[in-house]
Write a structure and sequence with these properties.
The strands form 3 sheets. Strands 3, 5, 6, 8, 9, 10 and 11 form a 7-stranded antiparallel sheet that branches. A 3-stranded antiparallel sheet has the order 2-1-7. The mean pLDDT is about 90. A hairpin with an 8-residue loop joins strand 9 (about 225-230) and strand 10 (about 240). It has helices spanning about 5-20, 60-65, 70-80, 95-105, 110-125, 160-165, 200-205, 205-220, 260-280, 285-295, 300-315, 325-335, 345-360, 370-390, 400-420, and strands at about 30-40, 45-55, 130-140, 140-145, 150, 155-160, 170, 185-195, 225-230, 240, 250, 255-260. It has 3 domains: about 1-125, no CATH class; about 130-280, no CATH class; about 280-420, no CATH class. The protein contains 15 helices and 12 strands.
Length: about 425
């Protein structure tokens, strides 16, 4: 930290505070609404709107916006920055500094320790080589036994009153319906980037598919994520963006997700595995995961089914160029599915029915009824979870794993023949 810069900024901010005191400025008392959904049962909620009042300390900076001391503070603050504020964009840094100072002490008064703290905070954060980028999600149809860390940078926790206050804020008159529900959860993602990395905000979204898709793969349900906000953690860095109500589903189909301790551990393991796959763009596993995520984002059932079967095909038939795709798809998929989905013949038939339904959609033949397509989507989602988990945990490459599976099926035939010989079957 450059102490000379801290001294310069502290002196400029002190001049603004002295000007505010000299002009006897009083911050505005503002009235606003806070909106949320209040649960009254396991499945029902009622909308709540509450009028609240707060002291707007940022209004002090606005009152002094044209004052020479504010212009001086703005100039000094921008000079201290490593990355300068664009000339064609209104620079709110002076107002941000005033807001930070007056909110810290809770009045329009002089506090030397607060002046120093704000100046040090600003210089440290705008001159840092790395900055922290924070993304906050609202998670619906989800609950867990307790708050937990998915890794060192990702946290899940129940929604708190502070979240309702912040994201439920609505200026008067109220024109929106409530968004947050007190039964929802909050997911916070923190990522570090170099300050001069201008593409960082775009790449920060690379983790979204891994985060959301891993939950869909590790559990048998479907939770909905929607962006609340994203941007630098520091209030002195630009780029904060508030999200819409668009929902990103964790799975193509499923009920609400409830994680116990075992489910949390399984989610952590799946997340670490999927992240390694996506970071290294592991051949065949990465495209199949992306197809699974594409299926989750589809609205039409036929499209969901098509993406899911393509995802399964990329797992089960990496040697598709050699032909016999339907046969390999059915045999290999049936061999990897558990007994709860039927005897081997039924499992093979299930896989082939998925392949045939996808072919019917793609080639424009008469499609299945809507209930039948929904049933197939449920089966395809379940089958993909099982098969992806098995193949992604294999120490071998996908191609080698499939070759080993074929060998095991041949050995199974050998064992069957041996059993016939042992019983004296004349065949």
């Amino acid at each position: 930290m450059n102490n000379e810069d801290v001294d310069r900024l502290e002196e400029a901010l002190r001049s603004v505070v002295e000007a505010a005191i000299a002009e006897d400025l009083t911050p505005v008392e503002c009235e606003y609404a806070v909106l949320w959904w209040e649960p009254y049962s396991d499945s029902g909620s009622t909308g709540r709107t509450e009028l609240r009042k707060a002291t707007d300390y940022r209004s002090v900076g606005r009152m002094l916006s044209a004052h020479p001391t504010m212009e001086r503070l703005r100039t000094v603050a921008n000079d201290i920055r490593e990355i300068k504020w664009p000339e064609f964009v209104l620079d709110p840094t002076a107002e941000d500094l005033c807001d930070c100072y007056f909110c810290t002490i809770g009045s329009v008064a002089m506090d030397e320790s607060a002046l120093r703290w704000v100046a040090e905070k600003y210089v440290t954060e705008v001159q840092a080589e790395d900055f922290v980028y924070v993304t906050v999600f609202q998670v619906v149809n989800f609950s867990a036994a307790e708050a937990f860390q998915l890794d060192d940078n990702i946290e899940f926790r129940p929604i708190a009153d502070a979240d309702i206050e912040h994201f439920g804020f609505e200026p008067l008159p109220v024109r929106q319906s409530p968004r947050l529900n007190k039964r929802d959860w909050i997911c916070t993602v923190c990522q570090s980037y170099r300050a001069d990395d201008i593409s960082a905000p775009h790449r920060s979204r690379d983790i979204w598919d891994v985060l959301i898709g891993s939950l869909g793969l590790s559990s048998g349900g479907d939770a909905w994520f929607s962006l609340l906000c994203e941007g630098p953690k520091s209030p002195f860095l630009s780029g904060t963006h508030y999200g819409s109500r668009h929902r990103m589903r964790s799975s193509p189909r499923g009920n609400a997700i409830t994680l116990d301790q075992e489910g949390i551990s399984r989610y952590k393991d799946t997340f670490a595995r999927i992240r390694a796959i996506c970071d290294h763009k592991t051949r065949s596993l990465f495209p199949s995961f992306r197809r699974f995520r594409a299926a989750a984002g589809r609205e039409v059932m036929d499209d969901k089914l098509t993406d899911l079967v393509i995802a399964l095909e990329s797992l089960l038939v990496p040697d598709g160029r050699k032909g016999e795709i339907r046969y390999k798809f059915g045999m290999r998929g049936g061999a990897l599915l558990p007994e709860r989905l039927g005897v081997p013949r039924e499992r093979r038939k299930l896989m082939q029915s998925l392949y045939d339904a996808r072919s019917g959609v793609v080639h424009g033949s008469k499609g299945s009824s809507r209930p039948e397509v929904t049933r197939l989507v449920n089966r395809a989602t379940d089958s993909f979870r099982i098969i992806f988990e098995q193949l992604s945990q294999s120490p071998s490459s996908l191609e080698k794993s499939i070759a080993e599976l074929d060998d095991a099926m041949v050995k199974g035939g050998e064992a069957w023949l041996s059993s016939l010989d042992a019983t004296g079957d004349s065949r």
